[in-house]
Predict the structure.
Amino acid sequence: DLFIQSNLSLRPDVLMEFTYFRYVIFVLIGLLIFNDVSWRTIATFAAIGGMLKKNCSDPADPGEFCWTENQRGAFLGAFYYGYALQFIPTLIASKIGFNLCHRISSLLCAILQVTCPLCIGYSPALAAVLQGVRGFASGVVMTNSFEVTRKWSLGNEANFVISGVGSMLFLGAGVGPFVASAITETMGWRYPYYISGAVYGVLLFAMCVLMPETPFDSRLMGKTEKEWFVKKRVEAEDTAKAAAGKTAKYKASLRSILKRACLYMMCIWQIANLFLFYTDYIATPFYLEEVFSADIETLGYLQLGMSLTCFSSCIIWKSLLPLYEKCGIPWLRVRVFFLLLPVAGNGIITAVLGYVDSFAGAACCLIVKSVIQGSLFAGSLMTVVYELDPFNAPLMIGIYNSIGQASGFVSPLVMTAMTSADQTEEGYMETWRAKWQAYYLMEAGVAFVGAVSVVVAIAARPGEWRLHPVLAAKSGGEKDGNKAAKSGGGKGEDKAAKSERGKGE
């Protein structure tokens, strides 16, 4: 009690008794992810919607600038060049604070979005550089969301918050292109950049007002909720003593993290997963436009449907996890299924996509892929990394996402290299489509490699694939209570507690 009171007295300037203020933080971090992902495809729709000429030799072409295929590919992939370096801002954030880095990132993104149209008119190379800098600045958004979730969650709600907040990534991936395409169609390709810059500024202001570095620094959280967080800290220290025999800190060094085999599996898996994901949202719109004459409005609606499907399926997949536990299926077996599903399932559908002869069939393939992709935050990699090591999850995400995000800039370049064809040649469409079929088959091969890496990593070092002691202790405590309630006897309660403590250790 004295420990709790001394910690509460550190912040006597509480402005209001808001007992569930942490949910405001969860909503805000979800909006930050949603906003960051929403505007990533502005470049794609700007290129289709009037920024670039499709045929520079045609004087009637409505496009504004004449770029080569390589310049277009570099511009579309430049964001991911910078985003692939997110390990650097993540490492900096772990030293000076994730929240501070996220604020700097939002300010930089607001400035870059507003100035990007000017740079596009001045120089394609400069525009690509700005896109890359914005990608670098956005690298801390996802890792900060995990750190905020770890600090601001109580009990077992962190896993559900990660799924809910993470699903905003899928929602933004579809709503953003839909909004960007609508603005481009009605107002011109420059205005999505201006509007997105203003939104970044608004969310930056909300972060400064509402979200301090830790719950104990909040001036809007009530004393009751702060007391819960102090008890959370005490319980974490007690669990550390029980697990390690001393007051252990679960923060690991970078060197020890780099020795984990599971981390390298995550890197390979993320490369395969994002290669499929970015192709659907960056490359495939060009394929659908050319083969099925899909206009920008239709593509916007399709990507909206894909994102809403992802968002909904994430909730459904998450609701299935308790059913697996009730059926007695081991934790690791369930997580292996969820790791294999996005890469193996989506790889098969991608291989088929190039041979579909109608826009409706292609759209159905993409919707099914979105249903499978929804499992990413419901039991797949994003939740597994937290369950294995919640204290070092942001740094691990920064590492494997840095490597995995290479798919974001590699896929447009590979697409350009594999699908380029001379429009003046006879039989151009047949040749061009055959190249796209080869490109989709190549993607399926990459997905197969990602699936194999899961099996190899778990077989090589099974000891790394265990629920973290802190989370196991929470789960064990709940099971103890249920068993005691059923038995109704003190002996039964003691046996259950000993059994679960043994499993946790």
Observations:
- The mean pLDDT is 78.
